Amino acid sequence: MLGLFKVRMRGLCFLAPNALDFSSMYSIRPTWISFGGTAAIVTSMGLILGLDAAASSRHAIVSALLIVAIADNLSDSLSVHIYQEAERLEDRKAFFATVANFVTRLLVASSFVIIAIAVPRDALPLAAAVWGLLLLALLTYRIARARGAHTGKEIGKHIVIAVIVLGISRWLGSWLAGVSG
Question: Structure pTM?
């Protein structure tokens, strides 16, 4: 019989099957969620702002977000897994890191899909930027605290980089709209 037990991971509690025996997995490592979380946040914001500048429809934006949430996520998760195998990470830990990366990225990307569906079209870029920058700040805060780094400085650096990416995405969208007429 497959029972369930509680697993506490950095303040989060999950139910996990006993057969998986998470006893050697003390907590989700920041590296397991930081890559997928950051990639999903910045990519989703960039897509929304770039496609908005290109005058894309809500349908096109949602479709792009879903494609990235699945196809790009699977590609990145495979890349993370292969990298960890190359680093000779124990098979079990590499597997959990891969799953954590995939799930993190899928959940974050899904939150942007929900925003793209629920928020009025003209408010979508602002809503996506606010949500994404908030998520990025929270993730950065959590990681900076775990590292003992200055949280404000780390958040500031990451927000500046994200804003640069958003500006480039917006510019590319505008440029493509102008080129394609």
Answer: 0.79
